[in-house]
Amino acid sequence: GIGYVGGEVRGKLDGNAMLRLKLSGERMKGKAEGTLKDGTLDLKMSLEGDLLSSLLVLGGGVKASGYGKLELALGGPYDSPKLKEFNLSLEDGKISWGPTEVRNIVVEARMEPDGFLKVGKFEAKLDGGRLEVSNRRGERPLKLEVLGGVNLGVLQLNTGPSGIELHIPGIMSPEGTGTFVLYGRRPDEPFLIEGPTSLPRMVGTVLLRNAEITYPPTGGKRPSIWDRTDWDLTLVAGEEVWYFRDAIFGAGARLRIEEGDRLTLHGCPARGDFWVEGSLRATSGTIFYLDKEFWVEEAGIEFNTKYGVEPIVYGSAETKVRDENTGRELPVYLRLYAWDPKTGAKLERAPLNECFLDVEVPPSWDISKEEVLRLLGYPLEEYPRKVAEALGIGVEDRVFRSLLSPIEYRLRRAIGLDVLQIQPSLMRNLLAPSGPSLTSLLYGTKFTLGERIGTRGLLFYRGELEPPKPPYGELWSVQHLLGLEYRLWTDTWLKLEYSYDPLSGQRDRRVGLRHRIWW
């Protein structure tokens, strides 16, 4: 902190005064000199030491430190003084909040005669990347309405191609980070933040890599800065961008966004002219529905909301079930639909606010919807209990995701894997007719490990804890599945799988080729 060492304050009955102070503390020292004459203030101050820790009081778990020198002068009416001079130099600064740490902060800023606060240098390192900030005069300057108005001009941000690593609460997995590459409308231009401060304008492009994101925010409410920002911003998906959601259309989802997909934001929500254009598509990932894991074939959303049109969504996913009566393995599809209000037909591309999920099997199998539900483990006679299970699993996903996501994130970073996911089945086991036991609570737990092969392939392992099977006496066993999924061309995938049951010694090898046809 700052302590008072010595000085004097002298005043007269007519309201005039003279000030001379010397300040000192463990981290900082300084002095202040000035006069107040006929209601006019003339004050000069200088500080030197750990400026960031003493002056940057942000709270919320934010920690800061950094050595610097600050010189400033105030003048004008004592009740509304104006900043006349400002010179700041800072080196070796550090700010940290949550998993994000900004290091090696270097700042040089000075006020020019016309009141423009010129940022000559601002550099900082963020986990493998560097952020550079400068400013210039512009038609839409950022002006701080303090000390007579401080003109910051137009801020210019540049991260370079390596980007910077950040955590954004609410839209990213807990303790998760992503790599943000900032540039202007073109790669050779800087990202801009323009004024006024009451309605800042963001102009440029954000390329996101290696991140897990969700929307709407998990906190339930968008930050106010979102609504009062004027957007001219394009968001581009880079490598390894995953969308996750605990419950969307009644299902949990984890989808890998196609590299190169983009959304462009226009206008300001608070002003009423905000709209979005662009599209996002996923051709890999998982959807959890009716206590089954479906592998995504394709899912996407298309935006063009300028005239109030709802985003259009589409999607399909597949799982495999085995008919215990015949031993046949049957594909079951999960598809997104809406009803055509005129014809009553199903629409495969549906407005976001009208769509629903439906399960299907190939028409050649000619079985009823009730039979499909039975194959999924939802026979009609047990439907009430199964519905309770499904509701419980939804609650479980919301509760345990907040606990498991940080663990999964740390393990992924420590091991160096692209995919690491744990899926418990506690609620289903608690609601089982036979009642739960300490061991049975873990039955059905799935864990998935995966590593990307370039931009086209995924090598993965999945294990599932299973309950005892007659005639074996073990309390549990682990079903193993090793697989490789590789995209040969844009719409063609090759899939290889090898499964092994250690109790029975049964092995199964599968080769699949999938091609998507557009019409």
Please give a structural write-up.
The protein has 3 domains: about 1-90; about 100-240, no CATH class; about 390-519, no CATH class. Helices cover about 10% and strands about 55% of the residues. The chain has helices at about 50-55, 225, 370-375, 385-415, 425-430; strands spanning about 5-10, 15-25, 30-35, 40-50, 65-75, 80-95, 100-110, 115-125, 130-135, 140-145, 150-160, 165, 180-185, 190-195, 200-210, 210-215, 230-235, 240-250, 250-255, 260-265, 275-290, 290-305, 310-320, 330-340, 345, 350, 355-360, 420-425, 445-455, 455-465, 475-490, 490-500, 505-515. The strands form 2 sheets. The chain has a 27-stranded mixed beta sheet that branches. Strand 1 (about 5-10) and strand 2 form a beta hairpin.
> What is the total number of structural domains?
3
What's the average pLDDT? 80
Q: Ranges with pLDDT <50 over ≥5 residues? A: 1-5, 387-396
The major beta sheet can be summarized as: 27 strands, mixed
Q: Radius of gyration, Cα only, in angstroms?
A: 30 Å
Q: What proportion of the residues form beta strands (DSSP E)?
A: over 45%
- The global form is elongated
Structural class: mainly beta
End-to-end separation in angstroms reads 70 Å
- Portion of residues in helices? 10-25%
Oligomer class: single chain
Q: How many distinct beta strands?
A: 33
Count up the helices.
Answer: 5
